[in-house]
């Protein structure tokens, strides 16, 4: 008897029916777990460049909003909305945003970082060991200003702390103006006049450039002034007084263009400093200004300020952190000198007392002093440096001790 073909197949389990997907069924099954939502990066990771963000303003605004503190009415503040608006208005190729950070670094100690936007993405940075000058009648009008790395513009938004970099607090922020260089005075400066206000031809009222330079943006003027090694800088901030103006000048002796090969401690005592100034400065007025701006006690020994030991070779070569561009020609650790421009700040010297006072009721300012991490609060959040550290979970941090402000 012949077996039908339908019965001649080998015995095996029946084939499994293919399961048809129904729209009502969820895609995930017991064997397929959806990937977890990535955790938001920490402030320290963002600051160090280990985490990438698409929208830095939204990220920092969210964090700073949760850290807000009540402060006395006389404490200078800027609202979170105005702070964000200020940044947005300068997010373009001709922005002129500035920030002053109070930085308590674990190695170099307390100093202040002045950052000036010069392009859509980047800012030059100066470390000020003693902060900005604020007393027009001080015997120490000069301040040391040391070039550090070119930073990203979004670094202006940072207020955070970590055990590796210390605390970073927004001391002031706003926009800047670059004023024209003062005309040379044909007469010798008076014995009481030791900074470059002696070269004024007339009081400055903050008017636009009067030397025929038109159509330039402030950041373009900054680039030009920086490359001529003389910057007359007016800062429009929330803490600094109205029309606050300083000059930054790079002495000839410090004018080198190659990036330093390695970190080292630089020391200059008063004798060596005066000798170098006399050898390299070209005019008597330049020498007088230079000697007046000589570093104060505690500034002669200049360590590599605001330098990360973990920087890669490309960062050191370019003197720019990843994401920024050193198109301005900044050189790491060049020592500039800053002077308070008293006449441009609205001050006039009394004929009888010789003291510098407000020119008019609405001009000039009362003396102020930079007092350090234990006294100064953020203009955005109202926090002290120790409160920033606490909010970021930094415990037992001990920065370099011995910092003293110039209180005379």
Automatic annotation (TrEMBL):
Residue segments, region Disordered: 1-38, 180-216, 251-325
DNA ligase D 3'-phosphoesterase domain ranges (all copies): 101-246
Compositional bias segments (type: Acidic residues): 194-203, 298-312
InterPro entries found in the cross-reference section: LigD_PE_domain
PANTHER family: DNA LIGASE D 3'-PHOSPHOESTERASE DOMAIN-CONTAINING PROTEIN, DNA LIGASE D, 3'-PHOSPHOESTERASE DOMAIN
Protein name stated in the entry: DNA ligase D 3'-phosphoesterase domain-containing protein
Origin species: Byssothecium circinans
């Amino acid at each position: 008897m012949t077996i039908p073909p339908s019965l001649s197949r080998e015995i095996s389990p029946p084939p499994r029916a293919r399961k048809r997907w129904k729209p009502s069924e969820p895609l995930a099954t017991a064997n397929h777990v959806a990937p977890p939502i990535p955790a938001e990066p920490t402030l320290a990771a963002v600051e160090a460049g280990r985490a990438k963000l698409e929208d830095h303003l939204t990220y920092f605004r969210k964090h700073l909003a949760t850290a807000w503190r009540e402060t006395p009415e006389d404490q200078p503040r800027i609202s979170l909305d105005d702070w964000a608006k200020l940044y947005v208005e300068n997010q373009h190729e001709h922005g002129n945003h500035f920030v002053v950070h109070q930085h308590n670094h674990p190695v170099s100690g307390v100093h202040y970082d002045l950052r000036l936007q010069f392009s859509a993405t980047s800012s030059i940075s100066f470390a000020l060991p003693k902060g900005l000058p604020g007393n027009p009648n001080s015997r120490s009008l000069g301040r040391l200003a040391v070039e550090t790395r070119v930073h990203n513009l979004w670094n202006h938004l940072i207020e955070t702390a970590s055990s590796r970099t210390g605390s970073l607090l927004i001391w002031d922020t706003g926009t800047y103006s670059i004023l024209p260089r003062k005309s040379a005075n044909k007469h010798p400066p008076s014995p009481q006049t030791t900074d470059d206000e002696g070269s004024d031809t007339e009081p400055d009222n903050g008017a636009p450039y009067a030397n025929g330079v038109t159509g330039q943006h402030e950041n373009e003027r900054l680039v030009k002034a920086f490359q001529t090694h003389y910057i007359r800088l007016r800062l429009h901030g929330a803490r600094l007084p109205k029309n606050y103006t300083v000059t930054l000048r790079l002495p000839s002796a410090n004018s080198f263009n190659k990036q330093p090969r390695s970190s080292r401690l630089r020391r200059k005592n008063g004798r060596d400093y005066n000798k170098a100034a006399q050898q390299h400065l070209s005019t008597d007025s330049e020498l007088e200004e230079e000697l007046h701006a000589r570093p104060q006690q505690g500034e002669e020994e200049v360590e590599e300020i605001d330098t990360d030991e973990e920087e890669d070779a490309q960062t050191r070569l370019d003197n720019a952190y990843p994401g920024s561009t050193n198109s301005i020609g900044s050189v790491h650790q060049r020592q500039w000198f800053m002077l308070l421009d008293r006449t441009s700040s609205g001050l006039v010297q009394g004929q009888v007392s010789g003291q510098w006072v407000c020119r008019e009721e609405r001009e000039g300012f009362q003396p102020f002093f930079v007092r350090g991490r234990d006294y100064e609060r953020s203009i955005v959040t109202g926090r002290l440096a120790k409160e920033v550290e606490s909010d970021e979970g930094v415990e037992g941090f001990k920065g370099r001790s011995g910092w003293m402000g110039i209180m005379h």
